[in-house]
Every structure is written in structure tokens, then in C-alpha cells.
Design goal:
- The protein has four helices and eleven strands.
- The chain has helices spanning about 60-65, 125-135, 145-155, 165-170, and strands at about 10-15, 20-25, 30-35, 45-50, 55-60, 70, 80, 90-95, 100-105, 115-120, 140.
- Strand 1 and strand 2 (about 20-25) form a beta hairpin.
- The longest helix is centred in the C-terminal third of the chain and has 14 residues, at about 145-155.
Length: about 180
């Protein structure tokens, strides 16, 4: 899908593996919503994304990810999600001598991390583990293989985790396995 351009509201089919597909929708300001839906073929119809759970919302470089997308779905095939886009994210803080951390921020009204309001500085695993598990990193996702591996791990093992968090929070264990809705 080299020539596909995506705008707010567009829904795409995402190839996770040779026999696994899921759906994602472009939302505000380059944020993409990924859904807890998977099937073995790439034929979608009659799906209301308002009735499907969200896996995560992340900023994406959609041009870099295009090879993951197999098709843009028509308005007839899928009802677009109207769920609120979360405004709280973790913003990485890279310090001297390999010291890493994050702040909890609230995105601007335009859903930008530039100018985001810091809600809590210096997030620490010992005190903020639930925040680390719940909130996404505010950085741009542009590596299709990393994103594909995250989706594959979730659909195979029930673990929804951005490996960038393991870089920032060195000793944080993977979150508990989530039992998927069927």
C-alpha cells in the first residue's frame, strides 16, 4: 500500500503475520488507535469499532508503517470509532550518564506532546507501576517490525507492552497477561 494516504478517521487492516490481521484507525494529530480484534483473513465487514476494545493509542509515522497496512476500509465495511483519545502519556526523559525516566504529561488540546502539561515528574516503577503499564509513550512509532512484534505478542500471549518502556524503565516486568474478550 505504498500510495495510501491516511487522514483522521481512516481505518486500515494491519497484517500482523501471514495468517493474522487486525484493525487500526487514524485519530487526532497522527495518533493511531489499534483494536483488540484479530482474524485469519483480510476480509472485514459489518464491524462497529465502538463495540471493539482498544489495545493502545500511539503517535505513528504512517508512511513508515505502510508496508503493514493491507487496505484502507470503506465507510460501508466498518463503523469508525468515536471513543475519546487519551491525553495522558509518558514523555521520556533522557539524562546524563544513561539515566532514563519519564514524566506523565497531558497532551495539548491539539493532541500534541509539544507544549504538553507535566502532570507528574519523575515517574518511578516503585511508586508508579500502574501508570507505566496504563499509559503509552509519547514518542513516534515508526518501526513496522517493532509494532508488528508488539501486536503479535498481544494476540499470541495476551501481553500488551511497548518495548520502549523496557528501555526507559530497565527492571519493570512485563505486565500481567490480559484475558482477551472473544
Amino acid at each position: 500500500m505504498k500510495k495510501m494516504s491516511l487522514g483522521e478517521g481512516d481505518v486500515v487492516s494491519v497484517k500482523v503475520s501471514d495468517s493474522t490481521y487486525t484493525l487500526a484507525q487514524m485519530r487526532k494529530n497522527g495518533i493511531m488507535q489499534f483494536f483488540d480484534i484479530v482474524q485469519s483473513d483480510d476480509h472485514w465487514s459489518g464491524i462497529d469499532l465502538n463495540n471493539v476494545g482498544s489495545l493502545f493509542f500511539v503517535f505513528v509515522a504512517d508512511k513508515s508503517l505502510r508496508r503493514m497496512f493491507t487496505q484502507k476500509l470503506s465507510l460501508d465495511a466498518v463503523v469508525r470509532s468515536t471513543s475519546l483519545v487519551p491525553k495522558q502519556m509518558l514523555s521520556a526523559v533522557i539524562g546524563n550518564a544513561g539515566n532514563y525516566g519519564a514524566d506523565l504529561v497531558e497532551l495539548t488540546d491539539e493532541y500534541s506532546s509539544y507544549g504538553a502539561k507535566v502532570l507528574k515528574s519523575d515517574i518511578r516503577p516503585s511508586a508508579d507501576l500502574e501508570l507505566i503499564y496504563r499509559c503509552e509513550m509519547a514518542g513516534m512509532q515508526g518501526d513496522p517490525e517493532k509494532l508488528r512484534m508488539r501486536l503479535e505478542r498481544y494476540f499470541e500471549k495476551g501481553i500488551n507492552w511497548d518495548d520502549a518502556k523496557s528501555f526507559i524503565f530497565k527492571d519493570v516486568p512485563l505486565p500481567p497477561r490480559r484475558v482477551r474478550d472473544q
